[in-house]
Structures are given as structure tokens and as C-alpha cells.
Design goal:
The protein has 261 residues and is mostly helical. It has a single domain, classed as Transmembrane di-heme cytochromes, Chain C (Fumarate Reductase Cytochrome B subunit, Up-down Bundle), CATH 1.20.950.20. Helices cover 64% and strands 3% of the residues. The protein contains nine helices and three strands. A three-stranded antiparallel β-sheet has the order 1-2-3. A hairpin with a 6-residue loop joins strand 1 and strand 2. Helix 4 crosses helix 6 and helix 6 packs antiparallel against helix 7. The chain is globular, with a radius of gyration of 21 Å.
């Protein structure tokens, strides 16, 4: 199974609404609701977004894990068994990190707008983003501290997005230079420095997606695209109001159609 097939298998069989064929032409964002028993689920990520996410995340994590094993376990004693296996796993996952994202983008080439929209969102910062970062740790300890409303990505996700965009081409260039040349010390230093920079971002991202009770519901958004409406409204209030606020505004009229009579 390839990463390109992963998205199909991760789509929930009980989704009650299919995705729109393409992003909203004006904003490039999702506007779709799936009915559930508890206020409904809303479409947060299109298939093209999820496909690109996993096409990067899976090979990157394999690269990171195999590099950690090679450095910690094999560097002190290169004669230990299976070193060649982990070395080639690292190289193969590196090649996948080059090829799979481009295949994912090509497969969903009709959704270029959504990718450009996401890039714009990640690189656009407002005062609330800086406030969110400064209060993030305190809010995780004291629930009385309210974090500022966020857009499609919170400030931590924006940092992750920006670092990935900035280091991705450098990972590829330095990795190829280390692999294909015999004079690669500077490239190795850059490669290692970027891996160290990525470590807190990876751990933070995985903690919020897997461990944290408040962040864990968002993982379904990268599995089948849908998240709980109330969760999204709480964690990404600006994004929610912009793209789903009109549904709530229309709700009172829907409850009392004869009010004007």
C-alpha cells in the first residue's frame, strides 16, 4: 500500500455526506456539513489536503525515526547488525519524501487553489497569533485563560507549516549531497541542525493530535476530512465564523417559518 492509497482507506464508511467536487471558488475553503446526532460534523480538510499531508508526514516520520536510530544506536558502534537496513530505509523514505508530495499534488491538480489558500493562511500573521503563542503554555495549565480566536490554523500550526516550507528543499538538497558525494560535512551539519529544529515541532504536533484531549478530536479531520462542529467553533473560531457562521444566523428563521405571519 502506498501513501496515495492511504487516504481511501482512512475515509470513514459512516460519513453521511460526500465532499464537494472542488473548493469554493472565491475562498478555496470547505463549506460542507455532515449531519450527526450532536450538532453535526463539518468538512475541515479536503481529500487533496489530506493526501498531501500524509504524503509528507509518513516519509518524514520514517526519515526522522531511522535517522535517530542511526545516530544514537549505530554511530557509537557502526559494526552493529542491520545498520545497512536502516541506512537504506532512511534513503528510501527520503526519496519518497521527494516524490510522493509531488504525486499527491498532481493527483489533485484541480485543487491548486486550496493549497495556495493554506499557504496564505499559514504565512499571514495578526496580533492574535502572537497573543496565542504567548498564552499557549499558560492556557494548557490554567483553563481559565482564554486563548484568542484563530483562523484555519492556530499559531503553533502556522509555525510548523512555515518551518516545513522553509526546510523542505534544504532537507532534499543536503540529503542528496550527503548520499551522493564524499565531501558532505557541512551538509550533514545542516541536515542535523534542521532535524533538531524539527524535534519540538514534531513532538508538539503529535502530542496535540494524539495525546491531548482538547486537540485529539482534530485528528479525524486528517482521516476523513470531518470534525465536530462545536470543537471547530471553539478552536478555530475565526475560520468557523467565516465559513459556517451563516448557518447559525439562518437557524432562528428556520425554527419559526411563520414568525412573519
Amino acid at each position: 500500500m502506498t501513501v496515495l492509497d492511504l487516504d481511501k482507506d482512512m475515509t470513514s464508511a459512516d460519513d453521511t455526506a460526500s465532499e464537494p467536487a472542488e473548493p469554493n471558488a472565491a475562498s478555496g475553503v470547505c463549506q460542507k456539513t455532515a449531519a450527526t446526532g450532536d450538532g453535526g460534523k463539518i468538512l475541515r480538510f479536503y481529500r487533496s489536503e489530506r493526501l498531501l499531508h500524509w504524503a509528507i508526514a509518513v516519509p518524514f516520520l520514517v526519515c526522522y525515526a531511522t535517522a535517530l536510530i542511526l545516530v544514537v544506536f549505530y554511530n557509537p558502534d557502526p559494526q552493529r547488525p542491520f545498520r545497512v537496513l536502516f541506512s537504506w530505509m532512511h534513503r528510501t523514505s527520503g526519496v519518497c519524501l521527494i516524490v510522493l508530495p509531488f504525486l499527491a499534488v498532481y493527483k489533485s491538480r484541480g485543487d491548486f487553489r486550496i493549497h495556495f489558500y493554506n499557504i496564505k493562511q499559514a504565512w499571514t500573521w495578526v496580533i492574535d497569533d502572537f497573543k496565542w503563542l504567548s498564552l499557549m503554555m499558560a492556557a494548557s495549565i490554567n483553563t481559565k485563560i482564554k486563548l484568542p480566536d484563530q483562523g484555519k490554523f492556530n499559531a503553533a500550526e502556522k509555525v510548523n507549516f512555515m518551518v516545513l516550507m522553509g526546510t523542505y528543499p534544504l532537507y532534499i538538497a543536503t540529503g542528496l549531497f550527503i548520499w551522493l558525494t564524499h565531501v558532505a560535512f557541512v551538509s550533514w551539519l545542516m541536515h542535523t541542525a534542521m532535524a533538531l529544529l524539527a524535534t519540538p515541532l514534531i513532538l508538539g504536533h503529535m502530542y496535540m493530535a494524539i495525546v491531548s484531549k482538547s486537540g485529539r478530536p482534530g485528528l479525524t479531520g486528517m482521516k476523513n476530512g470531518y470534525v465536530d462542529r462545536h470543537w471547530a467553533k471553539h478552536h478555530y473560531a475565526h475560520w468557523y465564523r467565516e465559513h459556517f457562521g451563516h448557518e447559525e444566523a439562518a437557524a432562528p428563521e428556520a425554527k419559526d417559518p411563520d414568525a412573519s405571519a
